[in-house]
Amino acid sequence: MAAHDATILRGKEDPALGYLRIATEEAFCPPELVRMWQEMLAGGGDIDPGFESLMGFYLRSTADRPKYIFERLQDLGSLRLEDMDATGIDRQVISLTAPGTQIFGDAATATSVATLANDQLAAACRAHPDRFSGLTAIAPQDPHAAAEEIRRGHDQHGFCGVIVNSHTNGEYLSDPRFWPVFEAAEALDTPIYLHPNTAPRSMIGPLLEAGLDGAIYGFAVETGMHLLRIVTSGAFDRFPRLKLVVGHLGEALPFWLYRLDYMHAATVRAQRYASMKPLQRRVSDYLRENVWYTTSGMAWEPVIQFCRQVLGADRVLYAMDYPYECVPAEVHAQDAMALSPAEMKGFFQSNAEKLFGLPADS
User: Is 1 a member of any domain?
Assistant: First the structure.
C-alpha cells in the first residue's frame, strides 16, 4: 500500500528530474464486474480453481491489503490520483484487471463486460487526459467481436493498446482461431499487453497445492508459457509487425534466450511434435523484435540491467503494477539505477511514449 508520508515529486512538478514517470501496467475493475465475480463465487458449482484461489481471497478477505486493493481497483478518480501523486507517477496506462472478461463461458456476457469496462475507462481518460491512458479490454471468446472492439477502442476512445489477461478458459492466443485479434492489432499498430492470469485447470494443481499459483510464481509460469506458445505457433511470421508487451520483466523468459533457441532448433530437426514447425527466425529474435518488457513488480536493478543488455534498452520500460504494488521505495530504487539522464528518460518516459503512441512529454 502507498505510504503517503513520503511523497515523491512527479516529473512535471520537478523539471530537474529530467523525465516523467509513466507507469504501464496499472489495473482497474468496474464495480459491476466485481459484483458479477461475487455472484459467481457465491453461486457455488464448478468454479475455476484459479479464480476461486485468486478472487475468492481478494473478495472475501477482511485483511487490510485486499481491502485496499479492491477499493483502489474500482476508483478512477481521487484515490488513484492521490496514490499517483504520492509515488511520483505522472501518467498511468490503465487496463482491466485479471481475469477480466476471460473467466466467463458465455461469449455474449464476456463481450458486454468488455464494452462496459472500456466505456468506463474512456470516461476517466477524458476526465484526466494528462494523467490516464487506457488499453482496450476484449473478450477473446468471440474473436471477431474482439477485433471489432479493438477498432472501437482505438478509433472511438483513443486507447493506446489492448489488454489480454492471458488464457481464456484454458485456451491460448496461439490457436489460429483467435488470430483476428492479432490481425486487428497489427493493422492499427497498437500493442497487445499479455497480462498474467492464474493457471487453468489443466496445469494449476501442483502450483495451488504448494501455494505457488499466484504472483509468487504461478503467474510467470502460465504467462511465460502463453508467450512462448504464440512465438512457436508462427504467429509473428503471419503478423510480422505485431507488438506484444509482457510485464514482470518477461516472466523469466529473457534468462532462457540461449536455451530456447538451442532446444527449439533441435526439436524442429527431430520432428518430434506436429505442432513444432520451423520458423523464419530464432525464438530469441521474436522476443527481441516483437515484444516489449515492463518492470511491474520487479524493482531490482540487476535484472532490469540484464534485460536492457540482452533485449535492448528500447524494449524495457517502467511499470508499477498498481494497486497490487504501490510502494514508494520501489520508485526510489529505480530512480537510483546506474543509467545516464538520457537512459533514465527512455526507461521511464520515452520508451512508453513511442510504444503506446502517447503524446511526447505527456
Answer: no
Catalytic residues: 321
For the chain, list residues with pLDDT below 70: 1-6, 362
Asked, for residue 4, whether it belongs to a domain, the answer is: no
Residue 310: domain span: 15-354
Query: What pLDDT score does 6 carry?
Result: 61
Sequential DSSP letters for 171-224: B-TTSGGGHHHHHHHHHHT--EEE---PPPHHHHHHHHHTT-SSTTTHHHHHHH
Which letter, b or e, does each residue of 180-203 get, where b requires 16 or more Cβ atoms within 10 Å of its Cβ? bbbebbbebebbbbbbbbbbbeeb
How confident is the model at residue 71, as a pLDDT? 96
- Integer Cα distance of 254 and 276 in angstroms: 21
Domain count of the fold of the chain = 1
Question: Measured in whole angstroms, how far is the alpha carbon of residue 296 from the centre of its chain?
Answer: 9
The pair phi, psi for residue 317, each rounded to 5°, is -140, 165
Question: Would you say residue 2 lies in a domain?
Answer: no
Residue at 283 is within a domain: yes
Beta strands in the chain (DSSP E): 22-28, 91-96, 132-134, 136-137, 162-164, 192-194, 244-246, 291-294, 316-317
Whether the CB-CB separation of 93 and 352 falls below 8 Å is answered with yes
The CATH number linked to 261 is 3.20.20.140
